[in-house]
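Hi support team,

I've been running sequence recovery on a batch of backbones for a student project. Most finish fine, but this one hangs at about 90% for roughly twenty minutes before it completes. I'm not sure whether the input is malformed or the queue is just slow. I've pasted the structure tokens below so you can try to reproduce it. Let me know if you need the job ID as well.

Thanks,
M.K.
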């Protein structure tokens, strides 16, 4: 039976059964359990420890928070402004943060992955963007095969800006599309035509980007099977190298801008799943393969090859094949992972700028991982990225038996095994094509903090379907 057939034939009862709030596991432990007691001093120690591993490359993420307007669905950390002085101050602050951080990474300079996200990174002018790149290149060394990627908004990104990105070595570009339907676009406050997106995609391809990717969202207001079929047909006609298909997380209590969305216009769980199943069917029929829990790529894509080989990685920048487990974040709200510790910068512009102006690193929370965290992180990452867990590899890495360490957790997998989400083999666990849809639910079994008895923290998570 094909992946498509299995994915589209899941009974509604199973969808209802497993539709519950849960983490997306872009990190483990998840951000809600990080502590504000882990701050700049711990970050400096982690950077200095990491500096001793001078031959190991790492990744860099830069956050550009500015947008001209805020889309109703957006869950990103953004700043809406047309104040040029405010933007200038942020750029200067960002470059000062780069300088301060590099001082603590004296012997660690090699970077093999760079990503700009936002906000809208191309909100900046070419000259402003080049200033930031010049600062990064002054303090760090980028490998010849460095993966340099950026997120763009087709509505505000000129062809001149795109060409400038190629001249600075950017080789992957992702465009926010979300949906092509007129009514859906009005309901989410983001109007952009298919012709505009196609013009940008074609231009990027003419410049020989290694990857031209698009982002879609399912579960948006006014989406129907009929309207989403048309959106998917248009998306496939663009022939992107990769597609990110995200589930809309409706959390108006957390993101006030989502209060502009009319809740009654959102598809119910059964209809939302039909949209996801439809996307799986149409993308796989068009020759794409499902990567991780929410991406699609062509068979010859390096992500596809890496997943088949069990080499796929995931971090806050998305799925990658670059073996750079450590990442330094720059900019407000950015997150880094250094020396087995997470660190996040202030999420407000004023606090971020104030910290840097006082020559302090702008860290407001983080988490230093213990041995159990690292073990659970490995299992969750293996399942989320590669849809498998090899018991032999697990024992080799941690010198412990999977069945001994996760005796109680493994018993909880029985439910998923009975529902045909997991196949158990002598050498490991395999997530079935059906189970890929419920991978977040499966990962939750291994989440120590989520399952800790008496845990008083009740973070708000999006629903898993």
């Amino acid at each position: 039976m094909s992946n498509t057939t299995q994915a589209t034939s899941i009974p509604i009862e199973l969808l209802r059964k497993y539709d519950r709030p849960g983490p997306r596991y872009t990190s483990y432990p998840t951000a809600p359990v990080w502590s504000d007691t882990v701050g700049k001093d711990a970050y400096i120690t982690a950077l200095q420890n990491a500096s001793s591993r001078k031959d190991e490359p790492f990744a860099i993420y830069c956050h550009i928070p500015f947008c001209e307007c805020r889309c109703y669905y957006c869950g990103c950390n953004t700043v809406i402004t047309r104040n040029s002085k405010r933007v200038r101050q942020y750029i200067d602050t960002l470059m000062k943060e780069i300088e301060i951080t590099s001082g603590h990474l004296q012997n660690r300079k090699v970077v093999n992955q760079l990503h700009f996200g936002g906000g809208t990174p191309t909100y900046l002018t070419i000259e402003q963007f080049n200033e930031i790149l010049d600062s990064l290149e002054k303090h760090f060394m980028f490998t010849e095969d460095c993966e340099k990627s950026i997120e763009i908004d087709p509505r505000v990104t000129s062809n001149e800006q795109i060409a400038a990105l190629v001249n600075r070595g950017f080789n992957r570009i992702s465009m926010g599309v979300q949906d092509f339907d007129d009514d859906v676009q009005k309901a989410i406050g983001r109007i952009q035509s298919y012709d505009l997106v196609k013009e940008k995609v074609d231009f990027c391809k003419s410049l020989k980007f290694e990857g031209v990717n698009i982002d879609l969202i399912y579960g948006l207001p006014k989406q129907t099977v009929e309207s989403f079929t048309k959106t998917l047909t248009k998306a496939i006609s663009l022939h992107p190298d990769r597609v990110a298909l995200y589930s809309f997380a409706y959390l108006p209590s957390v993101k006030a801008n989502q209060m502009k969305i009319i809740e009654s216009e959102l598809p119910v769980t059964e209809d939302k799943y039909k949209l996801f199943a439809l996307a799986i069917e149409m993308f796989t029929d068009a020759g794409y393969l499902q990567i991780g829990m929410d991406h699609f790529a062509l068979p010859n894509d390096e992500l596809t090859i890496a997943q088949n080989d069990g080499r796929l990685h995931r971090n806050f920048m998305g799925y990658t094949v670059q073996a750079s487990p450590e990442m330094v974040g720059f900019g407000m709200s950015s997150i880094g992972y250094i020396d087995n510790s997470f660190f996040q910068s202030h999420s407000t512009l004023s606090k971020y700028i104030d910290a840097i102006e006082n020559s302090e690193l702008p860290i407001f929370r983080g988490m230093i991982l213990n041995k159990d965290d690292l073990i659970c992180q490995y299992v969750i990452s293996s399942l989320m990225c590669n849809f498998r867990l090899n018991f032999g590899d697990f024992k080799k890495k941690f010198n412990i038996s999977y069945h001994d360490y996760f005796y109680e957790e493994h018993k909880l997998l029985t439910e998923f095994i009975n529902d045909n989400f997991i196949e158990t083999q002598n050498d490991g666990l395999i997530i079935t094509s059906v189970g890929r849809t419920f991978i977040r639910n499966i990962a939750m079994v291994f989440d120590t903090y989520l399952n800790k008895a008496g845990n008083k923290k009740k973070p708000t998570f999006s629903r898993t379907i």
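--
Follow-up from support: It reproduced on our side and the slowdown came from queue contention, not your input. Confidence is low (pLDDT under 50) at residues 1-8. No action needed from you.
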